[in-house]
Amino acid sequence: QQPVQSPQAVILREGEDAVINCSSSKALYSVHWYRQKHGEAPVFLMILLKGGEQKGHDKISASFNEKKQQSSLYLTASQLSYSGTYFCGTESSGGYNKLIFGAGTRLAVHP
Amino acid sequence: DAGVIQSPRHEVTEMGQEVTLRCKPISGHDYLFWYRQTMMRGLELLIYFNNNVPIDDSGMPEDRFSAKMPNASFSTLKIQPSEPRDSAVYFCASDRTNTGELFFGEGSRLTVL
């Protein structure tokens, strides 16, 4: 039931790009992305509702393919501040329901 | 506006003791969630409330765990008796209907010796 995230970890140099994937075995109503810095609480990045939409947040964007039950998070021209663990959370029924998080993808951006 | 407030921030206790974690959600938010985070299992949803009513507690690991929300501004998560495997960071989060954006508290780090 937990969505699967890949890769587990990514190491980047400043300015490089990365893609984080999230897939589910269940039909999805929405996908949520959060970032957690070490020792802090997760912070909301964006939500994608079924309909195949794509959203952006500064240089971070995401897509949602409901047919494939997948979402991808795109980080372009990475900055040091992007370092942290990225979680996707999935909601698998219509209306408001519980959010189940993936295991997370650790991203480290170095100068 | 104040965010989600959790207490205590850190708790160290001995096996068998009762532990009570507290949460004050953001005013106006009608959903409240309790999550547990460990290295092994990541972020696990334990229970969530809507308008103070428990909606889904299927994630509560055992009968040793209980949660209450007596009013819109307060919730507790109780572990009795505590065990070393309960050691984790417990997060409370709140949300307003249909926004889908969870606001997390800073967490309560529990260590059971």
Beta-strand proportion of chain B: over 45%
How helix-rich are the residues of chain A, as a percent range? under 10%
Residue-averaged pLDDT of chain B:
94
The DSSP helix count of chain A reads 0
What percentage of amino acids of chain A are in beta strands? Answer: over 45%
Number of strands of chain A: 11
In oligomeric terms, what are we looking at?
heterodimer
Radius of gyration of chain B: 13 Å
Helix content of chain B: under 10%
Low-confidence stretches of chain A: none
Task: Give the count of helical stretches of chain B.
Answer: 0
Based on DSSP secondary structure assignment, what is the total number of beta strands of chain B?
A: 11
N to C succession of SSEs of chain B? EEEEEEEEEEE
The secondary-structure element order of chain A is: EEEEEEEEEEE
Structural class of chain B: mainly beta
Main beta sheet of chain B: strand number and arrangement? 7 strands, mixed
| End-to-end distance of chain A | 37 Å
Interface with most residues: A-B, 21 and 21 residues
Regions with little confidence, pLDDT below 50 for 5+ residues of chain B = none
Describe this protein's structure.
Chain A has strands at 4-6, 9-13, 18-23, 30-36, 43-49, 54-57, 60-65, 70-75, 84-91, 100-101, 105-110. Chain A has 111 residues and is mainly beta. In chain A, the strands form two sheets. In chain A, strands 2, 4, 5, 9, 10 and 11 form a six-stranded mixed β-sheet that branches. A five-stranded antiparallel β-sheet of chain A has the order 1-3-8-7-6, with no helix packed on it. Chain A is globular, with a radius of gyration of 13 Å. The model of chain A has no long low-confidence stretch (mean pLDDT 89). Chain B has 113 residues and is an all-beta fold. Chain B is 0% helix and 55% strand. Chain B has no helices and eleven strands. Chain B has strands spanning 5-7, 10-13, 19-24, 31-38, 42-50, 53-56, 65-71, 74-79, 88-95, 103-104, 108-112. In chain B, strands 2, 4, 5, 6, 9, 10 and 11 form a seven-stranded mixed β-sheet that branches. In chain B, strands 1-3-8-7 form a four-stranded antiparallel β-sheet, with no helix packed on it. In chain B, a hairpin with a 2-residue loop joins strand 7 and strand 8 (74-79). Chain B is globular, with a radius of gyration of 13 Å. The interface between A and B is medium-sized, with 21 and 21 residues.
